[in-house]
Structure formats: C-alpha cells, structure tokens
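Appendix B. Raw example, untouched.
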Amino acid sequence: MIRMFGRGARDGASLSDNRGGPWGAGGGDDGGSGGEGPRNPWGPRRRKPSSGGGGDGNGPGPIDEFLKRSRERFGGGFPRDGRPYWLYGLIAFLLLWILFTSIWRIGPQERGVVQTLGSYSYTMGPGVGLSWPAPFGKVTKLDVENIRTMAIPGSGENLILTGDYNVIDLAYSVRWNISDPERYAFQINDPEATIREVAESAMRSVVARVTLDDAIGAGRADIEQRVEQNMQQLLDDYGSGVRVQGVAINQSGPPEAVNQAFLEVSAAQQRAQSAMNNARAYALQTTAHAQGEAAAFEKIYAEYRAAPAVTRRRLYYETMENILQHVDTTIVEAPGVTPYLALPELQRRAPAPAQPGAPAQ
C-alpha cells in the first residue's frame, strides 16, 4: 500500500510538469503569484513557507504523513519491501481459532461436559462458558431435559415366552432422559444400545413370570411398572447416568402364525366363561328361593307350635284358595245353607223353544 501511494505521488509529480496544459506550467505558488498561469491541481501540494524561513514549502502529503506516523506508532511494523505478510494473517487466524474454540454458549436445557487434554474437568451450566482452545480443550453439549422415546422392536415381531409356556408378540416403548451428564458421556460406550438391551432383558425377565392372560389382559400395567423398576436398577448398577421415565406396552398378542387358532381358543374360553356365569346365576337364584321357603316354613312352624288347630285350619283355607281360584264354579255345602242353584248352567242346557209352524218333536 505504501509503495502504491509513494509511486502515485511520484507519478503525480511527474505529471505536474504540464507546461502545455490548461493550467500552465507546474511551477509557481499556490495563489498563482509569480507563476505563468493557474496552479495545476494534479501537482504536488506545496506548503506555505514557515515564518522562520527555510525550505521551499514542498513536503509530503497528508497520506504520507499518516502512513509515517502509523509506522512509528507500531514500531515500524507495517510490512514494507522485504517483510513477510503471512505473520499478520497467522495472528488473525490464531485469534479467530481461540475465539471459536474457547467460548461456548450452553442452552437452558443443555449441559456442557468440559474435557482438558482428554480428561474430564467440569460441567458447564446454562449460559456462556470458557474452556481451553482445541485441541487442548473440548466441550460436549448434552440435552438433559429432553424426554427420548425408544420403540422396541423397531420392526417385525418380538416373540417372548410367558410363564405358562405360551409365546406372545410384544411391542413396547421406553421413555428416558439424561440425569448425570458426566456418567452419560464417559461411563458407557453406546448409551442407546445399552438402554435397548437392558429394556429387552428386563421385559423378558418379567413376562417369563406371568401367564398369557396377564400379559395380554389386565396384568399389563403391573408388567410395565416392574420392567421400569428393573431397568432403573440395572442402569444404576452400570453408572449410566440415565433416568427411566416410563415403559408402555403398545401391543401384545399371539404370533401371526398361530393367530387364527388363538382366536378360536379365546372364543371357546369366552363361551365357557359365559356358561359358567349363567350356571352361577341360576344356582344363586335357586338357593335364594329355597332359603326364602325355608324361612317361611320356620315361621309357620313357630305359629303351629303356639296354636296347632288354628294353624291347620288357616293352612287348609289358604291351600283351597290357591286351588279354587282357577275354577269357574264353586259350590259350598254346609248345614243351614241353601244350595247354590246354577241358573246360567241350567239355561245353557235347556232345549230351545219350538218355532211356530214347526212339527212337534
């Protein structure tokens, strides 16, 4: 840059000797006094003579003075001819390298695991933190608030043997998050693969102790709780830094190859259960009726012991009332009572009157 401005100044000085130009020759004062014409605007700038005298008033321009002062301020450090330019580029690169590998911004849900020379140093909290520049320092950001979900199996069947030697196809999901960033980053090599294997082991261990009906029916909630507890125990023993948030069974049923037979067995079990329920209902109803009759008999027997004749007569009357209430005609004969004359019956049996002119029978 200095060479360019210096060369331009010399070229401007050479061009200032334009005696045939519209501004006349390059000589003369600023004001044009003592010259042959107006001052050349392209010529070098002349200083006015100092009051003390000395010098012709010609000197370096303002740009040359600025560059000179700059060189003096930096100890002559601006590169000139023969000095390397790569030194300043290297300094700029080092500053940018330190800036981008030493300053870290940690989000509200994140934690930064800091390593110095490959060893764990500390854990950064939310905000802005500093570390040694790479490769001396390293920061690994981990999201500790995010609840991750892992589906097992990813595709296909997942056959598990139950406690009563039946095979079921079980699909479930595991929810987990990071509880200890340091242990999660350094304790186990592949955390997700470890969590998957622990979940499968815990599920098979629990299902092997329950029956088929529990695995596909009302016992699923208990299985989920027990699997969650077993998983957390194993992961804590490994020092994984993982917290299991829950286990959910999404689908449980027979394998596809025996699905039709399983449905038929289920239908037969439902019919058998329905017949058993009907038999229990009939037995309860019959038992209740018998208990009611027994209670009534006990009550009548107590009255009979108190007054046998009255009780016998009352029982006779009640029995005859129950029998005769279904008969149209009732005849009661007793001493001093006029017998009942069944006039409607006699009228039905009487012959019809003869018509006039008809032959007599």
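End of appendix B.
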